């Protein structure tokens, strides 16, 4: 959300603009959230109708823009000042020092407004502003007040101002109340300006909660974010690469040994420069899910399920139209096919409007060498000053750090190679009681092993101490063998509960265990969509794997069974399953394969993708569904009596491949399923396979093959039991569609009328609407417009009653085409629009292609032929990607109407 969007969204009676410049190269950077917390807390206690809008970025230029809107009642600025200059940020995040007089001129045209300056030595600045801006009332520090005390003081002032007190009185009372300041020593703050002596806010308290508008875009980085320690040199280099005029490309690689803070640097830069990316910041770790769905999810985009080529075009087109930042992490672990998909995406991504990407890898990602070129930043050791600061912070401050380390803080940093993760581990082991003398001896003895090996040694000491304190930690560590580097906390707890027997006494310790692990920096915890997730640093995971490899096969089998059982339950509970659980599922299934646990694999796959009504098969991602079906089908080959499960997987995989437009493979799966069902004497499954095969061949335009499959299914149903007879109406409906495509309208009408009678008798309204829709199409094709309109209207009424938006969009489209034929352009426009809105809401690409065709029909009807050609070309392009017959229909229409298509679309079918 930009400043303009925030103002548009603001509906409160009063607005506060909050600016907290914190330059990268400021040795005492401010923490913006502290300022916000105090202001918000004070206003929330009163429940006043106020919006707080952050200035992002906190630059002088954007402040000038904000002031020019004249829409802020209070401008609150927290910054460092020297007595002559104040510190703001440049666009690249570095410090800009502004003379007081120059800064004061920014406010010269402001109307009635309160300016609050939280910074030492701002009294003279307040005087300058009061002289330059007569309509501005200024509150500023009158001396060198500790920043924490100043924030508390200003929070009290906000409480008093919004209860009707004048600024002068509020400042006077708050100053005398602050600890350590007596009335005779003079006020801690000073106020000047024309409204100093009168109440400036007339607001009723208790009516609304204040709101904070962050002026930040969508950002999918996990909320765990370590402090940024003096990487300003790297930050400025990356800024120049991403936004400089002489940059080789819009992509930059951040490389370095694990644990040096590559991801932390990228996250900090993404947050600091977020204003450059109003369309979002996407954090994606390739390999966990299909590339195109993963990129879209990371950027907060809703896309439907479709063939890979369609998704690739859809995502690259949206990337090219967006000012977004894509951060790809852990590239060194991504599979080759994933890297190929990413490379293809980058080739198709036009970054002209401002899109950028950061690639994070241990080594230079050579798959992207020609795109990245020299745009590489290698992250090494922290500077000594930053290392000392990190150690001091880890130990709770200077005083405690000196108690533990004496005057050897610098030595501790040196022995840890100034490697952030090793410093964190060393700080943790000292914090939980390891004597510095013992740790120092260990670090000196192992110094030649390097930071990664030393870190592993220290991690072992931490975990050993924690396990002695809380033996249950052993079970949590063992359970992590099922996970990669992150998991849902609830899943981890459940897995441990099954491992230890779920005793109530043990469960009571779970939170304590997790708090201990978090306190020792073994895990981090963050909130994602309202649920707590746990994450481990890659070096911690690597250390634990050596322990996991030593677990007994029996223990591993038990954990695999428990984890797969938990995942079965989750598959029906989580709407976005498997989501970020996919990496952990893959790991557990790999372990199960290694141990030959084929029955457990089959059981899991049956529970998750073994039925067409299961979530993963209904709404995807279908590539993941296919992956699990492949695994399940392979497992059935090595177990006795695996044929029934194999049949199940073949039927479902045929459906998934059909949806992915892998038509040859889908037809093959249905053929194999038909043979298997026949050998098992399962007529219903034979029928399902024949119907699936008929549908695939119909989609491919093989009407002979489709009709043969449907007629074989019809013969099977007629010879079967009553359950199979139930399928006759469905088969006849499909046969009717084949006859319609052949041009045999009379034969199609006869079949659809029979099906209509059956479905009316059974009360199958949803299916009845589909049959009435097909009858309407026949009347439409036969030129019986009134009859067609009546039937379409009947179908539409039923579709709306039963809640079938998929068919509703189709019927609305046909009614719109009918209106065009009748020269009722107004009705056609309304109906096409209704259909398009449903298609876009469902993200149904097939009917989005139809929507483009509808726009072409409308444009042609209005005589705007060039526009008609553009819409028709767009529709043909999408239809070809989807491999649907609409492309041929549109090309034929364009030829008949003499509509010129764009060259790429103008290929005679």
Give an overview of the whole structure.
The protein is α/β, with parallel strands linked by helices. Among the domains are: 3-213, Rossmann fold (3-Layer(aba) Sandwich); 232-378, P-loop containing nucleotide triphosphate hydrolases (Rossmann fold, 3-Layer(aba) Sandwich); 384-469; 819-909, no CATH class. Helices cover 59% and strands 9% of the residues. The protein contains 43 helices and 17 strands. A 7-stranded mixed β-sheet has the order 8-7-6-3-1-2-9, with helices on both faces. Helix 30 packs parallel to helix 32 (683-699) and helix 39 packs parallel to helix 41 (845-862). It starts with a helix and ends in a 12-residue tail after the last helix. The relative contact order is 0.04.
Task: List the keywords.
alpha/beta, about 900 residues, 7-stranded mixed beta sheet, single chain, Rossmann fold, 5-stranded parallel beta sheet
Question: What is this structure, in a nutshell?
Answer:
The protein has 909 residues and is an alpha/beta fold. Among the domains are: 3-213, 3-Layer(aba) Sandwich (Rossmann fold); 232-378, 3-Layer(aba) Sandwich (Rossmann fold), CATH 3.40.50; 384-469; 819-909, no CATH class. The two termini are 46 Å apart.
